[in-house]
Specification:
The protein has about 160 residues and is mostly helical. It contains 7 helices and no strands.
């Protein structure tokens, strides 16, 4: 751990301790089924402080999260499903970006080498033509899913000496 992150961790910890009573009051009020006028005003004041202070807002968000777990308000399966959906979207966006980068960066002979590699690995059945079309993209995606990374044929990383 770097000294900078250690300092930040200590600072957050100290800040949390400094505002412990405020967060504790928030927690006590937030679990009440009903609030009287005084409690409502106190909760409103705490939330106003949180709107003005990002660290207080973060601490309250964390308190809400812990309370939701404690009271069984969070469906873990739903959270896992949502995380998987987010990961799928991120993977697709990453693949699109990587594919576009390869299509623009590689010369024709390098694209052919990539297609040949994908064919040899069993991911590609199209023509070895150097065209970065949907078949090549699908093969790259299959390779990424199976191998956990972009295809790694050595010619892709070396300068292309053949003419396009």
């Amino acid at each position: 751990m770097s000294s900078n992150s250690s300092i930040n961790h200590r600072s957050l910890s100290a800040y949390s301790q400094q505002h412990r009573d405020l967060i504790q009051t928030y927690c006590q009020l937030s679990v009440q089924p009903t609030l009287n006028e005084s409690d409502t005003e106190q909760l409103d004041a705490i939330l106003a402080i949180a709107e003005a202070d990002p660290l207080i807002s973060f601490l309250i968000d964390e308190a809400d999260h812990m309370l939701a777990h404690f009271h069984g308000l969070i469906d873990e399966n739903y959270i896992v499903e949502q995380q998987q959906k987010i990961q799928t979207c991120l993977n697709e966006a990453w693949l699109d970006e990587a594919f576009q980068d390869l299509a623009h960066r590689l010369q024709t002979s390098q694209r052919k080498n990539l297609q040949q590699y994908l064919k040899e690995e069993g991911f590609y059945s199209g023509a070895i033509d150097g065209v970065m079309g949907q078949s090549t993209k699908a093969a790259i995606q299959q390779c990424c899913v199976q191998q956990g990374q972009l295809p790694q044929p050595s010619p892709i990383h070396t300068p292309d000496t053949a003419s396009q």
